[in-house]
């Protein structure tokens, strides 16, 4: 390296240093930029620790005890894995898990099929498609409390529009159409409402997937004289699949913890027919006050959802990489 | 001269301002209860207390659907929101054992408040823990019991009376037995009256809180259901699930299946009253607190409504409702709260309480010769209060209640299994709960 070149480099470096504004940290009592960054995110981290991480670990601790929130003066004893054993051996809890699985399966199947179908239609960009898109999205924008109460009235056998419509079409008297009071119909009543409310959400994600497919691929297929059916199965579905799977993941997690809709429509009834895991957990924790046992139940649910979601995400990544 | 006084005035002002918040604090009591008609009557009644003592009353009323959650959370967290609480009868065991309520024995003795002056069932139900022992945690405040209302105007229609007599062989009137009740319910089920289809009866079927339990027990007691062996506490096998109890539960299901309006799978106090008010049912099971409101109702009240106590079968009981008033032990205004209880226990205050729409439990009020004629529902209330029986008031009552809600709803509404299986399962659930509690 020559002397003249060193001089030039030094000059450039000096100019750069002068051009760079003085570090914020240096101006604030000599703190480094990293320290300032920590200062900014510390409140968020503390908040997360306080409201997410600490309760999680506290719940894990409680799950090994016989603690009951309605007996503040009682001696808390360690029961080891007793709560876990009781939860896992309780046929009623397994029944609620089965009910949950039933809801998750059917809501996902219906919402995916209808949501993708609607997205496919909307993607055709026919006249007025923006209006129809907005109209379809309305249920998703409503509060679950409003939707629950709204549908409860619709399902009402004597004054409900749903019962009237079914009666009009089938000829069955309205008093016989007891959607919420019938063991066989109540689960479907909830599935219908959830599908009505959340299909637009699936539709939006699928629409994003469909819009992400470049037009030239279809043009090339046209040149190759591929039929519309072939284009659908060989281009549209595979390329939109990661988006569809993402929608399934989101809805699966949401519906696994479905609470508000069931609580408003049936409260878990008739009997325990629609008692999903979240309702059973709420009853155990806040009505029967078995805090230790319900903590174990919550941890088991958390692990189940976390584990299933992880397996699913791995599958999703594989699909994306194809 | 003025300059000399200024510093003194300043000191006095500072002292005054420092003491004022404390004074204001001591002059206001918060009373917690459910948001319902009797609570409004209590607000009206309590104005006299404020006039007499200068202590302001603040009220914290919560809808029935969140009443237990809200106030049990408050008590469990040792909150200071409530100085006085009118808590449900079932809370008594837990509240006493966990130290939420102030024990009132010494206070009652000092102030000359005698529990003998109150209706015995209300003392056991709302004040004593352990039951049937002289340990008092509350003053009986609001007597309540499950009973029935019926459409007197429909019952009195000559054409219906004639048809009913021809069909069943007895005069259509308020039923005395369950067979009669069911016959009436069947008679009115899906009948057209004034161009509208009406139904037999509205009964409790609610799953979420305590509804179906309050309805089912109301009937089960009369068939012979007992919570435990009278000679051996917590021995429930053969009592909870006795053959008679099974028959009682089967009857409740048959009543639900034959004679309730469509969509009655989740009915409790409000829904039952609504079914009656909308002219949908001929009879309605409900707590007596609803009666004053129904009597005043323009469409179904007045001459159109009649009241009757729970019918009899092998035995004659009715499910107790109602509450006692307690002083919360975490209150910093205990003396003022006790002052309120002392005032509330007075006979003239209790008499006014009944006039305003509350249900007094004081014997001098309910045994007065004029009581029966004071309101059209007074007789039915008195007869009902004489036959009351209550659900467990154990500290674990919530878990016991949840188990019963599940088992009976599964059978009665969802038609799952048999009545015998439901009660056998219930007995097992309850045994496990008491084992967990260390009582067995």
UniProtKB/TrEMBL annotation, chain A:
Q: Which UniProt keywords apply?
A: Membrane, Transmembrane, Transmembrane helix, Transport
Q: Which residues cross the membrane?
A: 36-61, 103-122, 129-151, 188-210, 231-253, 295-313
Pfam families the record matches: BPD_transp_1
Q: Give the membrane topology.
A: Multi-pass membrane protein
Domain ABC transmembrane type-1, which positions?
Answer: 97-312
> Which CDD domains does the record cross-reference, listed alphabetically?
TM_PBP2
Q: Which GO terms describe its biological process?
A: transmembrane transport
InterPro entries named among the record's database cross-references = MalF_N, MetI-like, MetI-like_sf, Sugar_ABC_transporter
Location in or out of the cell: Cell membrane
Any Gene Ontology CC annotation? plasma membrane
Query: Where primarily located?
Result: membrane
Q: Which Gene3D superfamilies match?
A: MalF N-terminal region-like, MetI-like
* Recorded family membership: Belongs to the binding-protein-dependent transport system permease family.
Q: How is this protein named in the record?
A: Sugar ABC transporter permease
Q: Per the UniProt entry, what species is this protein from, by scientific name?
A: Ancylobacter pratisalsi
From TrEMBL, chain B:
Q: Which Pfam families match?
A: SBP_bac_8
Location relative to the cell: Periplasm
Q: What is its main location?
A: periplasm
UniProt keyword S-adenosyl-L-methionine present? no
Can you cite an annotated GO cellular component? periplasmic space
Alphabetized InterPro entries for the sequence: Bact_solute-bd_prot1, SBP
Q: Where is the signal peptide?
A: 1-26
- Recite the UniProt keywords alphabetically: Periplasm, Signal, Transport
List the PANTHER family hit by this protein, alphabetically: ABC TRANSPORTER PERIPLASMIC-BINDING PROTEIN YCJN-RELATED (PTHR43649:SF34), ARABINOSE-BINDING PROTEIN-RELATED (PTHR43649)
* Annotated family: Belongs to the bacterial solute-binding protein 1 family.
Instruction: Output this protein's name.
Output: Carbohydrate ABC transporter substrate-binding protein
User: Organism, per UniProt?
Assistant: Ancylobacter pratisalsi
Q: What is the lineage of its organism?
A: Bacteria, Pseudomonadati, Pseudomonadota, Alphaproteobacteria, Hyphomicrobiales
